[in-house]
């Protein structure tokens, strides 16, 4: 991959593919490639569904319209099964999360050297990672956004007093146990964004790493023997991880909107 023509060891190859295209330094360092691909895939999602919505027909739908309608109905059914209340945000948010995370995960199925080669030799970028969900910064940003919504709806539905009471009077409903209740509830509350983001990151990082190891350690003819079966199995993983992220988001928001 090196533009200088130097021979890369397996360790160099793996490290190269796990390094982001970065800008800035320290706390303000940005992973430009992760930001670019996540935004680009978000725009692609909006464009596809806007065209779908604008060209929806009441007659016999086309194959693509049927496919998108299946996705919408699937997400809508999941929301109705989990979220027992009325909220205009939950269903669109769940659809956005499911499709956006799925598209980001889907980038893992692109041949590992294809886009990085174009970025290095045609665009002059030494590094280029194309799986945004394999970047912990992207995953934790999405989970923190969900966490903010959880706090907002908890305060909106329960009120400040009700939210504080929920943190201090559960599970033991006695003032003596307020410190213990608060510690237990805060651990439970703070674990939500951590589990949401790190679960997605761990699965997608592991999947990306396996593709890199296959490409780095095996000869070209053997790569296809292992890459194709893993890619077929990985389709299930990327779909399942998008579904889990969506379901946990619905569950957390449903709990926030419950008024005890």
Features:
single chain; 260 residues; mainly alpha; disordered N terminus
Can you tell me about this structure?
The protein is an all-alpha fold and 260 residues long. Helices cover 72% and strands 2% of the residues. It has one domain (10-256). Strands 1-2 form a two-stranded antiparallel sheet. The protein contains 8 helices and 2 strands. The longest helix is centred in the C-terminal third of the chain and has 40 residues, at 178-217. α4 runs antiparallel to α8 and α6 (136-168) packs antiparallel against α7 (178-217). InterPro entries: ATP_syn_F0_a_bact/chloroplast, ATP_synth_F0_asu, ATP_synth_F0_asu_AS, F0_ATP_A_sf. Keywords: ATP synthesis, Cell membrane, CF(0), Hydrogen ion transport, Ion transport, Membrane, Transmembrane, Transmembrane helix, Transport. Belongs to the ATPase A chain family. It comes from Celerinatantimonas yamalensis. It is found in: Cell membrane; Membrane.
Total number of helices? 8
Radius of gyration: 22 Å
From the spread of the alpha carbons, the general shape counts as: globular
Kindly report how far apart the N and C termini lie: 58 Å
Number of strands: 2
* Integer count of domains: 1
The portion of residues forming beta strands comes to under 5%
Low-confidence stretches: 1-5
Portion of residues within helices: over 70%
Strand order of the largest sheet: 1-2
Largest sheet: 2 strands, antiparallel
What is the mean predicted local confidence, pLDDT? 89
Q: Give me the secondary-structure category.
A: mainly alpha
Order of helices and strands: HEEHHHHHHH
InterPro entries: ATP_syn_F0_a_bact/chloroplast (IPR045082), ATP_synth_F0_asu (IPR000568), ATP_synth_F0_asu_AS (IPR023011), F0_ATP_A_sf (IPR035908)
Family: Belongs to the ATPase A chain family.
Pfam families: ATP-synt_A
Organism: Celerinatantimonas yamalensis
């Amino acid at each position: 991959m090196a533009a200088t023509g130097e021979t890369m060891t397996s360790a160099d190859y793996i490290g190269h593919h796990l390094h982001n295209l970065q800008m800035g330094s320290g706390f303000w360092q940005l992973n430009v490639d992760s930001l670019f691909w996540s935004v680009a895939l978000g725009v692609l999602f909006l464009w596809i569904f806007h065209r779908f919505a604008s060209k929806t027909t009441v007659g016999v739908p086309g194959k693509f319209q049927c496919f998108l309608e299946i996705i919408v109905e699937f997400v809508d059914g999941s929301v109705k099964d989990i979220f027992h209340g009325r909220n205009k945000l939950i269903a669109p948010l769940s659809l956005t999360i499911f499709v956006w995370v799925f598209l980001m995960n889907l980038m893992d199925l692109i041949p590992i050297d294809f886009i990085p080669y174009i970025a290095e030799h045609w665009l002059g970028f030494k590094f280029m990672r194309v799986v945004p969900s394999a970047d912990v910064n992207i995953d934790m940003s999405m989970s923190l956004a969900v966490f903010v919504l959880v706090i907002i709806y908890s305060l909106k539905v329960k009120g400040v007093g009700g939210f504080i009471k929920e943190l201090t009077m559960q599970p033991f409903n006695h003032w003596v146990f307020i410190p213990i209740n608060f510690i237990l509830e805060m651990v439970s509350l703070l674990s939500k964004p951590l589990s949401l983001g790190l679960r997605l990151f761990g699965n997608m990082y592991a999947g990306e790493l396996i593709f890199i190891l296959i490409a780095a350690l095996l000869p070209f003819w053997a790569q296809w023997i292992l890459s194709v079966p893993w890619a077929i199995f990985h389709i299930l993983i990327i779909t399942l991880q998008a579904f889990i992220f969506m379901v946990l988001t619905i569950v957390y928001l449903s709990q926030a909107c419950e008024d005890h």
